[in-house]
Amino acid sequence: MRTLIKKPLRPAFTALKQIWRPVRRWTIPHGLILMYHRVARPRTDPWKLCVSPENFRDHLELLCRYARVVPLTELPRRLSRAGRNNRPPVAITFDDGYVDNLEQALPALQHFAAPATLFVATSWIGSSMPFWSDTLAATVLESQVLPEQLELQMGTTSFQWRRNGAQGAGAREALLRSLWARLQVLDEVERSAALERVTACFGGKAQLDPTARPMTVEEVRKLHASGVFEIGAHTMTHPSLPTLSPEQQMKEISGSRMQCERWTGAAPAAFAYPYGDFDARSAAIVADSGFSLACSAKAELVWEYTSRYLLPRVAVSDWNARQFERQLRQVWLS
What we know:
The chain has helices at about 1-25, 55-65, 100-110, 130-140, 170-185, 190-200, 215-225, 245-265, 280-290, 320-330; strands spanning about 30-35, 40, 50, 70, 90-95, 115-120, 150-155, 155-160, 230-235, 270, 295, 300-305, 315. By secondary structure, it is an alpha/beta fold. The chain has two domains: about 30-125 and about 210-330, TIM Barrel (Alpha-Beta Barrel); about 130-200, no CATH class. Strands 1, 4, 5, 6, 9, 12 and 13 form a seven-stranded mixed sheet that branches. The protein starts with a helix and ends with a helix.
């Protein structure tokens, strides 16, 4: 009986939600936080992290038309209702610390006088190593070798995969996502060791795009000195925080805050959870470490009742002007 009742009611609930969304935007103060990673044209982009420089400039132009672009730290107190003459506030954020944030994003942001926040994973800054996920992607997708099978030790468990005749991009992409899911939950030492074993099976690391590298410390300082970017913390090694003990979480969170302060001379006010992963302990540690707000990766607007330590962000894709304008007008701000 329960199933029979639910099916006919589903269209009605869907219609009510579609009606309620714009009503809520018009009646409850809200804002929007956008999450970018890179402004670049990579050879491959399996994680969908890149927005082309042309599309990024179109995004900024439309944001300045439909919204008020404000610093992230000011957004919670500047929430507003939608209305004919009342543009909701929007904050722009970047994660990780790729060099194209300095070379491509900064000039565009300066042109439009749009502030932004960069959340840096501090152990990767100044490293000669690319981000591990980029190494993995290049190795699996671009190497000449595709093994018939993989049998690897990853931390305390084993990983097994067999090609079973599968060929082409589909087989590589499926393998890439399986490996990423296993590597993502390992600690830095275990992940590095497992990644070395993976690359050995593919005949060594593939050549990475030289723009897909972390910034140096001097580049982070230059970005901070521009007055356009605020520097926020993103842990030290970019782990999934709920997989760590409270002590390890404290080290990652407070350690990244102290490192950002040493580099810039200013203690960061904002934090972002790597992968958007957090638990109750994570949020409490962030608050106790001195941050005034923290961002997740939940795709939702920021409402006046949203916790400052669980601020949602909407990930931005490589949309052209028309696609991005549709998101602004129909999904987020209208």
